[in-house]
Amino acid sequence: MTSDVQHSSASHRENISANRARLVSGRRWIIKIGSALLTNDGKDLNAEGMRTWVRQIVNLKQQGVEPVIVSSGAIAFGMTRLGWKERPSAMHELQVAAAVGQMGLSQAWQAAFAEHGIETAQVLLTHADLSNRQRYLNARSALTTMLDLGVIPVINENDTVVTDEIRFGDNDTLGALVANLLEADTLILLTDQDGLFTADPRSNPSAALVDERKASDEALDAMAGGADSKGSLGRGGMFTKLRAARLAARSGANTIIVGGKIPQVIDRLHEGETLGTLLLPDESRTVARKRWLAGHLQMSGRLTIDAGAVKALRESGSSLLPVGVREVEGDFKRGEVVACVDEQGNEVARGLVNFSSADIKKVRGLTSQRVRDILGAMVEPELVHRDNLVLC
Ligand SMILES: Nc1ncnc2c1ncn2[C@@H]1O[C@H](COP(=O)(O)OP(=O)(O)O)[C@@H](O)[C@H]1O
Ligand SMILES: N[C@@H](CCC(=O)OP(=O)(O)O)C(=O)O
């Protein structure tokens, strides 16, 4: 063991258990499963493994956690189906492998959850879906609706339509961006190693497992190696997992890198057991989330809200409804960021709007029922959802 992982003083152990215990209360978990695990190192779909993870994910759900799966393996499984031994380098061949593999992958997830009477939904995302504000909100609203309905989203990158320049490229990054999108508490990266080691255990058998660190800890970079430290099937290696943990930390999520083959790994993590590598955000979830929203987004307009709305936002942590809006300034679309000011002009909050400025002009001051009558039943009741709102 290197000195890096030897610091097991009593206070350190106490910290570990406190942080691990905090995971147990997390409401939303993103569980990303890598290609090597899902395809038995590229041989065939790991149906037994999938059944085991599914059982545990169902357990999580029964305990009130909202699980979201980010599933890799389309390219690796597509290669198996097409009889390809080597991962192709040509983009069009990778796209074909992904398209073939994705069919089997979603069928397998669907079948495994169906044994427990649970529906799954395939969600294939591209970079544009998360970088464009309107699409970002659309993706968010579709995914949260699935969770509300008890459907488990199974997400992958839409590999067949993306080119190298616009790829997430690895599902560790995609998992982290989904954690940001859904404000998840926890991002679990299930992989073929027990966690992040002080060096690649494939080439350094004496490397030791790192138990817990701040995601921002720069000493981790040398352990994770560079972008070329990846396994042969997936794309990321530990380099992208560490980067993903740092991305996830921006919205306050904890990341755990852990071995997917550890018996009952998800159940045990949810019981607070110390497994894998826990990478913590620097700040509390709320502080990190606020900073993320505030820094991530530029304002496009201004809503003047009445005293009742100010009170609801400040004191009850409510979403902003059209009924509380008096004036609208600026020309903005759904998905843009607006400042909410009180009638004296003081900024109260800022957040992502679900309605365009034109629509708000039609419905400001009206009850949710009247809003639906005017804009149709499809609109969300919240003008700014509280999850997308930062108080000033
Ligand atoms: N410090 C490290 N600790 C653990 N694994 C490492 C480390 N550095 C590189 N690796 C490699 O990363 C691989 C996991 O990455 P990858 O194959 O992309 O996994 P996945 O398919 O689960 O995303 C491991 O098999 C291991 O060889
Ligand atoms: N979207 C790709 C995932 C590539 C990827 O990130 O793989 P991995 O590093 O194994 O999680 C696929 O389904 O093959």
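^ adenosine-5'-diphosphate complex. The chain has a mean pLDDT of 88. Residues 34-35, 72-76, 98, 156-157, 159, 170-171, 233-236 surround VHF (ligand 2) (CB under 6 Å).
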